[in-house]
Each structure stands twice: as structure tokens, then as C-alpha cells.
Amino acid sequence: MEINNISFAYQDKIKRLHGIDAQINQGEITTIIGPNGCGKSTLLGIITNNYQPQEGQVILDGKVINKYKPKELAQKLGVVHQQNTAPSDMTVEKLVEYGRLPYKNTFSPKTDEDEEKVEWALRRTGLLDRKDSKIDALSGGQQQRAWIAMALAQDTPFLFLDEPTSNLDIYYQYEILDLVKQLCDEHGLTIVMVLHDINQAIQYSHQIIAMKQGKIIEKGNPKEIVTPKLIHDVYGVNVVVKNDEDLGMYIVPVGI
Amino acid sequence: MKEVLSMVKKLVSFIVVIILLVAVTLYSAISGSIEITAGELIKGLFTGTNDNVEIIKDLRFPRIIIALFAGATLSVSGVLLQAVMRNPLAEPGIIGVSSGAGFMSIIMITFFPTLFFYTPLFSFIGGAIAFLLVYMFSWKSGLNPLRMILIGVAINALFTGLSEFLSSSNGSSMMSGVSVTSSTLTMKTWNDVEIIALYGTIGLILSFLVFAWCNHLGLKDKTLNNLGFRVNRARFVISLIAVLLASIATAVAGMFTFVGLLIPHIGRSLVGTDHKALIPFSALAGALLIITADTLGRTIASPIEIPASIIMAIIGGPFLIFLLRKSDRIYGN
């Protein structure tokens, strides 16, 4: 996926993104980081075709994304948004079945393939034994997994996650991140996510895109681009970058 | 286990409502100023020899059928509007759709009385205009529930005011059937029945066909968008059906508030939020409510008739408060 020279403003005409250029490599995990309001969720919204940029285009498999038919695009990219709602009495299985919507017409019945994919998505996210539970009865981590399962049932080569770990306990955060890693390693999914935690981004990503005020400050392999200067430029925080033989690279914030 | 329990609850709810509906309808047919027994009624219907039955057929049957349809269409209209606006308070009466429809049918009757048969069409246009206004003005706030209701109240007031202005400047005597603020089901003929039965049936069938879309709208626009679902097209179609249902009821039976609010609310707690069950259940329960209100209205203080809409308001208000106290389940989690 190629992101070419994207500029974007909401109805208030204030420009939120300025000439964004980036490349999403297939089979890799790309993480967008940056302070609140830097435009990272907006960028995710554009590359998932939820907002239309005023300038530039996003190209997926040689075709501009807003030229795809809605269902065709939904067969290529699955998205887990940051805030989700579902009717409170919906079961997990019903929710995950929504992932099959791009493959159906209004009246077409459930196929064997639908059932297989739904079961696979439930198993992959560890929700198979909770499939008859109502969404409301799940913990925060389980709910997040249910939404990821819905996107997995969509059976797309691309998966986009907007702050999948926010509002979760640290255990569930890593549960989600490990799942993301497995999906990439074992199933070859291309993953793009927005994260707040810089260390998680370093640990789990092949590529980091660091943004500030609607611009990309730096992008590339975390080991090469994450420096005290970059973090200070982006977040205004002083950090020490450490390297541990076993743990790899990590940062420690030391003040502002 | 829970699964089974909720299935049983669903089934029992349907059966109870159907039994009550049949019972009340039958009771309604045999009671009033002319009283006969159910046996006489059925016998008379087949033989055509009982004069009382003939009178009942001409006067009471249209009224009963119209009450049933009005209840069904208004409840289902409420269900659809609530799905489209993701707001449990959306109701054709509250957000002005009914008064818009009522206003247009009054214009119709005042200025073009010869076009009587097209009243539903005019009502539909009126209802659609009111709905469009509410939708447009609340769009900017992201269809914020509270704002939408406030705008609806304003639109409702505007159309009600305009209608009353028209009625009073024309002298109140000519408004035989249509009133903007209340409804009486007296003086209904088989012509009225034809209109509401035809358009009402079409509307109800259409609404059942879109049940899956209504369910989809329980998810966020963004989510649906990324599932390749055309959200706005679905919204548009469902809204049209909702407006059709509400307008037809208003054109023929007049204004009833609360039914589109109460019934879907009760429906959700009894049969759940799945529209596959909620839409048919609301149609049945809505019909039951209005026929009950109308039957009470004309038997409770006979020979004085209390309009069904007034009975509805008196039952509806307290009941709504009771419901809201009991459960605060609304859309979303």
C-alpha cells in the first residue's frame, strides 16, 4: 500500500495532515506513533477510506482505494476502530459473523466458508468458548478481542487497528499485541496500528511512522530511527535509549 | 441455558400478545352501544341475516381495522426511526413526522377536498419534510440524541401550530376526521380502511424486509463502512419506510403519541434488539395497544366517547416513567 502526498482538513478547514508520504510493506507490522492530536488516527481514517483526502491518494494493489466498490475494499482491508458499539444483547458469535458481510448480499444465506472463517477467528482470539456470551458480559480485553475477531472473519490481507491497547490492563495489552504479532508471523497479515506506548511500538513493529502536527517526522525500522532526538522532537520528552542483549532496544523517559 | 430461557421468553411474549390481540379485537367487535354475543356475530357474518351484525360491519369494523393498522404502523415506524437515528426516544409523534403529515393532510382537505384519495400521498410528503428538517438540523451534532429530540419538539410545535392555525381560521366544524392534536376513530368508513390497509400492509412488509439493515445499524457508521455496507443508502430507505408508515396512520387515524415509543421499548425488553423479532412483535403489540385504548375509550364512560389518543396519553405517560425507572437499557454498550 502506498500513501502519496496526503493532505486533509475536516469541515473546520484546519489542515490536519500535510503532504503525508509513506509505504506500508506487505507482511509487516507498521505502527503510527505521535502525541495526541498529531493526526495519527486521522491518517488511519484516510487509509481505511473513512475520510477522503483533499489532496493525494492511497493506492492499494495498484488501484486508488476510493475507486474500489465498498464490498471489494472490505474484502481487502479489515479495521478495528478505537471505540465500538454493538447492541448490548448481541452475542460474540453474531458480532463476529458481521465480518462476513462483505461476502454477502442482503438475503444470501450463511455458507460453510462463513462458518469456517468465523470459527477460525473465534479460536484465534481465544473466544470460542465465549461465543454465546453477550458482548456486555465480556471484560474489556475480551471485548477488544471480539472486535478483532470480527475483522479477522473478514479474511483480509490488511488489518488496521486504532489504539487497540488503550483502556486495557497491561496484561491484556500484551495479549493483544502478541495476537497481532502471531497474525503477522503465522498468517502473513499486513498490520497497521496506532499505539501510544513507544516501547510497545519498538518491540512489535517492523516499521514506525512518527508523526507530529500532521507531518511525518521520521519513518523506518525502529532500531534505526528511534533516538533521544526523535522522541524529543516528537513528544518533547527527554529519554535514554537502552540496548539490552536479551530484550533488544527500549527507551526510558527521564523528564521534560 | 440463558439462550434457551430467552428463546422461551420470546416465544411466550409472541403467543401472549397474539392471544390478547384476538381476544380484545373480538371483545371490541361485540361490545358498545349495540351488544351481541360472539356466536351471533360470527353467525351473522356468514349468513348476513342479522341487522345488528350489518350495522356493526358498517360502523364498528372499519374502526377496529383502522385501530389495528394504526397501532401496528406507528409502532413499527418507531422501531425503524429508532434504528436509523440510534436513539430510543425517536418516535414519529415526538420528532414531528406525524404533525408534518397531519399538517399536509389538513392543507389537502382545506384546499383540495376533491383529491381525497391522495391524502396519504400528501401526508407522506409532509411527514418526509418534517423528518428531513429534524435530520438536517441534528446532523451537525452527529445526531446527538438530546439535540435531535429538542429539534423534533420544535418542528412538532411548528407543524402543530400551523395546523391549528389553519383549522381555526376555517372554522372548526369542517374538520370531520382529521385533527392534529388528537385522534378519534369515529366516523370511519370502508374507504378509510382501504387506504390504511393497502399502504399499511405495503409499509409493514417493506419494514420486515429491511430487518437485517436495522440490525446492522446497531454498529457504528465507521465499522459498517469498513464492512462494505452502504450505511447512508440503508438509512435513507429505512427512513422512507418509517415516514410512510407514520404518515399513513396519521392521514387516516390522526395523531397518537407514545405508541411508537412504548411498544418498541417493551419489545426490546421482551424479545430483544434483533429486528427480526422486534419488528413483527411491535406490529402486533402496537395493534393490541391501540385497539385496547379505543375499546376502553368507547365503553368505559358510554355513551360518551373518549378518544383513543387521550386514553393512550393517560396510560402512556406513567407507563413510560415506570419503564425508564425500571431499566435504563438503550442502544449500545
From TrEMBL, chain A:
It is found in: Cell membrane. Pfam families: ABC_tran. It comes from the Bacteria. Transmembrane segments: none annotated. Residues 1-238 form the ABC transporter domain. GO terms for molecular function: ATP binding; ATP hydrolysis activity. The keyword Membrane applies. GO terms for biological process: iron ion transport. InterPro entries: AAA+_ATPase, ABC_transporter-like_ATP-bd, ABC_transporter-like_CS, P-loop_NTPase, Siderophore_ABC-ATPase. Keywords: ATP-binding, Cell membrane, Ion transport, Iron, Iron transport, Membrane, Nucleotide-binding, Transport. This is Iron ABC transporter ATP-binding protein. PROSITE patterns: ABC_TRANSPORTER_1, ABC_TRANSPORTER_2. It is a peripheral membrane protein. GO terms for cellular component: plasma membrane. Signal peptide: none annotated.
